[in-house]
Specification:
Elements lengths: L2 H28 L11 H32 L22 H4 L4 H25 L5 H12 L1
Helix pairs in contact: 1-2, 1-4, 2-4
Pfam families: DUF1465
């Protein structure tokens, strides 16, 4: 992964985190939206708070991972591949049954944060995967034809 890729992903994550913060704050202030649930609905408010925390946690894991990669690329001796920050970890999954009652823009942000997390996890998995030898690549191509 090149420095420019890390920087682009970092900017994307920070913009999404800022957008999520503003959207969740607006929903807390205005009510939940399409299904008519309002601030007085305690269950709706708890659901909103839980999904806000999940989304924020997901985005903070992404940002921490990217900051660690940035430090590694810069040659920081304190940022090694074995550090806990070098692992994206398990995803914090949204409860889409709960999210169905949220405003469409909020659902879009939650989905975007999950997709960004998945992209980072795939990048990390690619780094940790053993490189296939030319013989293994040839065998894989032959098996694919059978």
């Amino acid at each position: 992964m090149q420095r420019a890729q890390v920087e682009n992903l970092y900017v994307e994550a920070m913009l999404l985190a800022d957008e999520a913060h503003a959207a969740f704050a607006a929903q807390r202030d205005l009510g939940l939206g399409e299904d008519g649930a309002r601030k007085g609905d305690a269950l709706a408010q708890i659901s909103l708070a839980c999904e806000s925390l999940k989304t924020t946690t997901r985005l903070m894991h992404i940002i921490a991972w990217l900051l660690h990669r940035r430090a590694m690329l810069a040659g920081d001796p304190g940022a090694g591949p074995g550090d806990s920050a070098a692992r994206i970890g398990e995803p914090v999954v949204a409860d889409w049954a709960v999210c169905a009652s949220f405003d469409a823009s909020l659902r879009r942000i939650i989905g975007a944060s999950e997709r960004l997390f998945e992209r980072i996890a795939l990048i990390e998995a690619g780094w940790n995967a053993p490189a296939a030898t030319p013989v293994q690549q040839l065998l894989a191509r032959l098996e694919a034809r059978l």
